Amino acid sequence: MLLAHSIRLDPTPAQRDYFVRAAGTARRVWNWALAEWLHQAALGQKPNAMMLKKQFNAIKYTDPVWLDADGNPWLRSIHRDAHAQPFANLAKAWSRYFERCRTGERAYPPCFKKKGRCKDSFYLANDKFKLEECTAVLPKIGRVVLREALRWPGKILGASVSREADHWFLSVQVEVLEKAAIRRRTANGITGVDLGVSSAATLSGGEKITAPRPLRGALRRLRIRSRRLSRKLESAKVMIGIRGRVPKGTRLPVSKNRTKGAKALARLHTRVARVRRDFTHKLTARLCRENQAVGIEDLNVKGMLANVRLARAIADVGFFEIRRQLLYKALRFGTRIVLADRWYPSSKLCSTCGTRNGELTLDERTWTCASCGITHDRDVNAAVNLQRIASGALGTQSALPEASPTATSVLLPEYIR
Question: How far apart are CA 391 and CA 383, in angstroms?
Answer without folding.
Answer: 12
